[in-house]
Write a structure and sequence with these properties.
Elements lengths: L25 H21 L17 H14 L5 H5 L1 H9 L4 H15 L1 H4 L1 H15 L5 H22 L14
Helix pairs in contact: 1-2, 5-7, 7-8
Length: 178
């Protein structure tokens, strides 16, 4: 008999591996559909924004920014079901086995808490809080680095937006002082 004919590869004996080829990964497709649904809903919400006056919109209306951002996210999301083709099943499986680090969860909780307080704190104080508490959470303990960063970065962002771009931030509870 002719032994030169390659045999069709059967199911792999290694755990979690299969020899079948699929253009779309099912788990990734479900994740992509969830992201697309959320973005679609958020896009719908942006269509209900009040229209800004013609004086406020120099080139593009302000309500277009969130729409452009959402469309960009949706376009990038379309690549998720095909990620296994670029990275390979083994590399992707190895990446997915890694546990979420506690610092990631703590950072998300901290940022969500600070953002929740933003209506009361105002945007400037919120930026200062983020610039103080996130580096502290991540282990930065040098006051000569932390203090200038917590003051200069929010100040530079505020000056850029208010003086150069003419966009004013919500002041929160500090509005009675300004």
């Amino acid at each position: 008999m002719n032994n030169d004919i390659p045999k069709h590869p059967g199911p792999s004996t290694e755990k979690g591996e299969s020899s079948s080829f699929s253009l779309i990964d099912g788990t990734d497709a479900i994740l992509a559909l969830i992201i697309l649904a959320i973005c679609g809903f958020l896009y719908f919400l942006t269509t209900r924004f009040e229209k800004a006056s013609e004086q406020m919109s120099q080139n593009i209306p302000p309500e277009w920014f969130p729409q452009l951002l959402l469309v960009f996210i949706m376009v990038l999301t379309l690549a998720i079901p095909f990620e296994h083709l670029f990275m390979g099943k083994k590399a992707l499986a190895k990446d997915r086995q890694a546990k979420v680090k506690p610092i990631s969860i703590a950072s998300a909780v901290l940022l969500a808490g600070i953002i929740f307080l933003m209506p009361w704190l105002g945007l400037f104080v919120t930026m200062i809080c983020v610039c103080i508490f996130v580096p502290l959470l991540w282990g930065e303990r040098r006051p000569m680095v932390l203090i200038p960063y917590a003051i200069l970065f929010p100040a530079a962002v505020t000056l850029l937006f208010t003086k150069v771009l003419g966009v004013y931030f919500e002041t929160g509870m500090w509005s009675k002082f300004f």
